[in-house]
Design a protein that fits this description.
globular, L-2,4-diaminobutyrate decarboxylase, decarboxylase, pyridoxal phosphate, Aspartate Aminotransferase, domain 1, binds pyridoxal-5'-phosphate, pyridoxal phosphate binding, about 475 residues, lyase, four-stranded antiparallel beta sheet
Length: about 475
């Protein structure tokens, strides 16, 4: 006989696979997972598995994602961690250098695990008392770092540059009016045009660029002709080349035109941490809003985006009310109101891993890592320039090196680009190296370049010299 009406409820709690996260349970599983991960990395043996999508798909072909019966926590995490590690494009390998895809610091990854175990949600104080205080402190300090002389700067934690750009354009539109138009160079990140689309703004007005930087004459002419409110989007560190727009001059032109200035510093903003290189982003503090991204130069696991605003009145435009999360009487009684700090509701405490990292390294330590990547890029660029079979695009502004096999230059433009693309795909298919690609304007059209985005803070120029030879050799063979 049943003692109570609940005896029939399956005892899921007692099956180890459904144990709740806690220091002991997670510790045991993490030990198992990390051993399997190491095994997967050994099996891969390079920056990416060979064989392309076919091989990657085959590795999980027999794996049901939604089995009716489970295999238990240890078996599942061991199996899938090994599969994921063996099949990853791994930025810990210096030859995995295509994108702004960084190898995360151990301290940040470990901190992210703590955040996962405690699972604070940043949409209300009663879900995140300490996490919200940590986020507030980080936002205040980052805001002061980016705007040293503003009275009331503020920062929001975002999921990355895409959300930062979207939020910035939303704040600009709310300030300037619904007929606001975005003015951006063709060097702007694709998320800028997408944000304009999403916000119902007109198609952005394009401004010409030279060497991947906004042309000041073209910007002045565009602003002079506009008869509506504008938000100028400049880039500090383009995704293609790492080029930094002339921020001070753009700020002067934008102010004179009464327009808003947003600087997308998702890549280059980390120069603020470097004592030697902060000058390269001089004028950043003239912007109304700035996108930063610490999952690029910053070595955080994704996500670690930040939107910094010149004044708190701008971030306040996101204020919103939901009685169950930030009731007016709760706020009046002193409970911090978090809901307006993001466009999202449930939200991970991404500030936690960032603050653990900065506490561990100091901003000077982060700056040193930024310097190393930039120095590496400068040295690798010199090696490209000296290489008999390669051509360098330009000396790097940040940590991106663009190169092209001279064999491609000997062909008609279209065939030359095809050769560059083929070299990249051949290296991917071999599992030898993950290089990026960038199409950049030439005086007569465009040209495709191979891109090395160097975010590995412990790699050295010597690590890349054999890669340069390999690119030249592949170009010879793909021809
Ligand atoms: C990476 C990047 C973005 C997009 O950032 P996510 O974090 O991927 O959303 C935007 N702008 C620039 C310049 C970037 O390099």
């Amino acid at each position: 006989m049943r003692a109570n009406g609940l005896d029939w409820v399956p005892r899921v709690r007692e099956t180890p696979a459904a144990a709740l996260a806690g220091s002991e349970t997670v510790g045991e599983l993490v030990t198992v997972a990390l051993a399997a991960l190491a095994e997967g990395v050994r099996d891969r043996g390079g920056p990416i598995p060979a064989g392309g999508p076919t091989a990657a798909d085959a590795a999980i072909a027999d794996l049901p994602a939604l089995p009716v019966e489970g295999i238990g926590a240890e078996a599942a995490i061991a199996e899938l961690s090994a599969i994921l590690a063996a099949g990853s494009a791994d930025p810990v390998d210096p030859w995995c250098a295509a994108h702004l895809h960084c190898p995360p610091l151990a301290v940040a990854a470990a901190a992210d695990l703590v955040a996962s175990v405690l699972n604070p949600s940043m949409d209300s104080w009663d879900q995140a008392p300490a996490a919200s205080a940590i986020e507030r402190a980080l936002a205040d300090d980052l805001a002061r770092l980016a705007y040293p002389s503003a009275d009331r700067p503020d920062a929001l934690i975002t999921s990355g540059g895409t959300e930062s750009n979207l939020t910035a354009l939303l704040l600009a539109r709310e300030t300037l009016g619904a007929d606001t138009v975005v003015v951006s160079g063709d060097n702007a990140h694709h998320s800028v045009a997408r944000a304009a689309w999403l916000l119902g703004l007109p198609k952005p007005v394009p401004v010409a660029t030279t060497d991947d930087r906004i042309d000041l004459g073209a910007l002045a002419a565009t602003l002079a002709e506009l008869r509506r409110p504008a938000v100028v989007v400049a880039t500090a560190g383009t995704t293609n080349s790492g080029a930094i727009d002339p921020l001070t001059e753009i700020a002067d032109l934008t102010r004179a035109a009464g327009a808003w200035l947003h600087v997308d510093a998702a890549y280059g903003g980390a120069l603020l941490f470097s004592r030697h290189r902060a000058l390269a982003v001089k004028g950043l503090d003239r912007a109304d809003s700035i996108a930063l991204d610490l999952h690029k130069l910053g070595w955080q696991p994704i996500a670690a985006g930040i939107l910094v605003c010149r004044d708190r009145s701008l971030t306040a435009l996101l204020d919103t009310n939901a009685d169950y999360l930030n009731a007016v009487d709760d706020t009046e009684a002193g409970l911090p109101d978090l809901l307006g700090r993001s466009l999202r509701t449930s939200r991970r405490p991404d500030a936690f891993k960032i603050v653990v990292t900065t506490r561990a390294l100091g901003t000077s330590g982060l700056g040193l890592l930024v310097d190393r990547c930039c120095e590496n890029a400068a040295a690798v660029a010199r090696a490209v320039a000296d290489h008999p079979a390669l051509r360098l695009w330009a000396a790097p502004s940040l940590s991106t090196v663009l190169l092209r096999p001279t064999a491609a230059d000997d062909l008609p433009p279209e065939e030359g680009d095809e050769l560059v693309a083929a070299v990249r795909r051949a290296l991917l298919d071999d599992g030898a190296a993950v290089l990026g690609r960038a199409t950049l304007r030439t005086p007569t059209g465009t040209a495709l370049w191979l891109k090395l985005t160097l975010l590995h803070p412990h790699a050295t120029p010597a690590d890349y010299l054999p890669l340069l030879d390999l690119v030249a050799e592949k170009a010879d063979r793909c021809r």
